Amino acid sequence: MTNSAAKNRLAHAYLFGGPAEIGKKTLALEFAKWLLCAKIKLHPDSSLNGGTGEEKFACGQCRSCQDIAKNQHPDVFVLQPRQEEKRGVIKTLEIGIDEIKTLRHQISLFPYSASHKIAVIDQAEWLTREAANSFLKTLEEPSGKSLIILVSPAWQTLLPTIVSRCQLIRFSAVPEKEIFDKLSKEAKNIKVLNRIVKLSAGRPGRALNLLREAGSLETLQQNIEIFKKILKSDLAARFEVAQRLSQNSSLAQENLSQWLLWLRDKILENNACQDLAIKIDGVSESTLNYPQKNLINSMREIQKTKVILDNPSFNARLALEVLMMKI
Ligand SMILES: [Zn+2]
Predict the structure, then answer these.
(1) Does the first or last residue of the chain, that is N or C, have fewer Cβ atoms within 10 Å of its Cβ?
(2) CA of 76 to the centre of ligand 1 (A)
(3) For helices 129-140 and 97-108, what crossing angle results, to 10°?
């Protein structure tokens, strides 16, 4: 993208697709900083600033970079689904037509202080059908100075007409060593960092959260214990867990991801491949209790449920209850 920008050949719209917490939104904002940074000379014939034209990163210091970091830049707009808490239930609200209309108006205007107007829509799968159709018009008739970046872990669920009008950039897992090296300055305990890097499964954002949020490793351990209990519980107890998880979709997704990692560990242990296991569960125990066939079946069902939970039009509680019956 930096090369395209330097050649003045930037696409009007990009779609960043790939797993959650891998750095898609971070990179979208970093690119916005880079594009608008006062210290970067984008075109060799421009003498507006002191850059050399070869900078790969924004300075992070100038007014523009700082305003973007604080989400206060007059030409950069970030839209994402809001979360609402009602009687203890945390619900993610879809991005509606009114929010999209406001955004479309904002990016149709001439830039206030920068070369471009930039819109980042995070978790774009939460656009309502109506909002997505409205936004399609902006993608079909882009204004010369606007840049749109859609970010989505579930981009396959977006309208095909939206996907086809964006340049798709797929994000994949970051090598463990890269995450380890980046975080080694911040981590106090190398053993803990090693575990965190393994647990993050190539997602730098996940690794950062595990490192910075106190108690996150303990919570993870508790989630695994819950899953092990579920496997031995009757349906009533399982439905209670389904009901609790359905109240917070991001919590449900996180639990399911961790259960998948535990199942993967058990399958590897069953097949004498312990070295490849993440060892998400600090407890070592006999895997005889977990027949391979059941483990694989559970993995499949959890993966299916994760896809369903990504789609806001499905009933989360129902999907989780079905999962509880199948694992
Ligand atoms: Zn800057």
Answers:
(1) N
(2) 14
(3) 20
The ipTM value here is: 0.99
Ligand 1 center from residue 199 Cα (angstroms): 34
Q: Which two tokens stand for residue 11?
A: 């696409």
How far does CA 216 lie from the centroid of its chain? 18
**Domain 2-170, CATH class in plain words:** alpha beta
Pairing of strands 167-170, 76-79: unpaired
pLDDT tens digits along 223-272: 999 999 999 999 999 999 999 999 888 889 889 998 998 999 889 888 88
Distance 69 CA to ligand 1 centre (A): 10
| Domain 174-213, CATH class in plain words | mainly alpha
Residue 287 DSSP label: G
- Across the range 29-51, mean pLDDT stands at 72
- Distance (angstroms) between ligand 1 centre and the Cα of 96 equals 33
Q: Could you list which residues have their CB under 5 Å from ion ligand 1?
A: 37, 39, 58-59, 62, 65
Cβ neighbours of 168 (radius 10 Å): 12
Q: How far is the CA of 33 from the centre of ligand 1 (A)?
A: 6
Q: How far is the CA of 41 from the centre of ligand 1 (A)?
A: 11
Q: Where are the domains of the chain?
A: 2-170, 174-213, 223-326
